[in-house]
């Protein structure tokens, strides 16, 4: 092989490596938080903060039943239509209202689990969200779910890096993530 | 380094790049649709069609409770054994029969959600499946689930790209996908 | 381009390929088994053993409701506090105790499914776990869940490759896996 030949082949290899670099997943974890159960949302935040601690970037997309978990109980907003008022009343208002997916037993199981978590020094959901905020976990909230459930942006929790968006924007993140979970 | 040495090293690098190219994930999303809940199946199709819109290839593997969602209410088939008849009667017969995983409230919540979706111009499950078919989303149906539940191929919906297969064929797809979800 | 120039560029490309090699996902599947439902845990093991059969390495992380599935009914341990005793009594004790997520119908649906699986020659959960052990599927058990539920290591099943660890250790595995699922 002569020098010129080598150069040509080299350039081709270089562009292949460039393409691979573009396709390579980033050190990132993406999660779709579809569930609004206390245990599952808690697991999502434990995974999220654990991943940040390991140097990963984290994006959480809250959709469907996950959306009302991010409402702020203190914030009452008016101007809702009847459907919005009904959903507003029926769905949990924030972290304090969410229940276990299992063994809720009319709230007793959930209360028991919360007291147990305190005793065992496991962070509560509220503390986990605060930690996630500090660790710069990005939160996306599904616009379609907000619209369907009649939620207003003003009634959601204050969280530094919270964006309202559609599924497409989330999929863009997931598409170059090492790990994507549906919770 | 002389020319010959460089060539040897170059060839080695080339084969490494080839190996990387083979291992690199494709621009593809794979989903295991295990759940038969209206909200979760709907979410699966929203994700599927959204991903196609972004240029991704999509494969959905329907298994366990997800399987009866793809039955066609119009198609009655005979020749089932007793177990098959029982499952046939107890499991939902297609999209019209599926319920919310949450707040179903004896069907009222599901009906409310459906009417709300219509009002907000969110596509129904039937419309989403038609859209997925048009967008060439591939559907795999788990053969073991079909067999367990006593379903016959003739009672499933007409869908252009529908294949009956085992978990191994799905895992092959997932293995070179950028995103794989269990829903 | 002269020889020296080519060499410099070649070395740069080489280090890029090295970096890509380090980042490339391994032929590995990771699963978080959060659910303790018979159908979901069964699906997890079907996926796990199917993946091994395809030449993949498999790691399963049992957490929350998934943890009690791995208890051994034969092993009674003492020295638990009141909370530990309560959870011990309320949560399923191993594979024989777990229920379907759907159509359990007071245990009748679960019994029906089990007898159906036997009839159709689908392996039971106990058989699947034995097969997974033989196929060298690695099992991680979440230490936080063990602690929360008051489980002792001595009451878990004998399984060759079982490790008690935190979420960080699992995320390390997931981070270089081709597929990661949350079940």
Walk me through this protein's architecture:
The structure is a homotrimer of 183-residue chains. Chain A is an alpha/beta fold and 183 residues long. In chain A, 45% of the residues lie in helices and 16% in strands. Chain A contains 7 helices and 5 strands, in the order H-E-H-E-H-H-H-E-H-E-H-E. Chain A has helices at residues 3-23, 38-53, 82-90, 108-119, 125-134, 143-148, 167-175, and strands at residues 26-33, 57-62, 138-142, 162-165, 177-182. The first copy, chain A, has a 5-stranded parallel sheet, with helices on both faces. Chains in contact: A-B, A-C, B-C. The A-C interface holds A 3, 6-7, 10, 13-14, 17, 20-21, 24-25, 27, 29, 39-40, 43, 46-47, 50-51, 53-54, 56, 101-103, 112-113, 116-117, 119-120, 122, 178-183 and C 1, 3, 6, 9-10, 13, 16-17, 20, 23-25, 32, 34, 36, 63-65, 83, 86, 90-91, 144, 147-148, 166-168, 171-172, 174-177, 180-182.
Short description:
Three copies of one chain form a homotrimer. Chain A contains seven helices and five strands; from the N terminus they run αβαβαααβαβαβ.
């Amino acid at each position: 092989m002569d020098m010129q030949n080598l150069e040509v082949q080299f350039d081709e290899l270089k562009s292949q490596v460039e393409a691979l670099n573009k396709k390579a997943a980033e050190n990132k974890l993406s999660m779709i938080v579809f569930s609004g159960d206390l245990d599952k949302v808690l697991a999502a935040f434990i995974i999220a903060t654990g991943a940040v601690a390991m140097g990963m970037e984290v994006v959480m997309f809250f959709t469907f039943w996950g959306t009302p978990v991010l409402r702020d109980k203190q914030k009452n907003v008016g101007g809702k239509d009847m459907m919005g008022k009904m959903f507003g009343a029926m769905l949990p208002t924030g972290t304090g209202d969410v229940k276990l997916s299992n063994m809720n037993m009319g709230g007793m199981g959930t209360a028991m689990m919360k007291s147990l978590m305190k005793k065992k020094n496991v962070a509560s959901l509220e503390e986990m969200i605060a930690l996630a905020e500090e660790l710069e976990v990005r939160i996306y909230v599904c616009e379609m779910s907000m619209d369907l459930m009649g939620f207003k942006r003003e009634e959601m929790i204050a969280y530094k890096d919270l964006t309202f968006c559609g599924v497409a924007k989330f999929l863009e993140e997931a598409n170059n993530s090492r790990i994507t979970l549906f919770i």
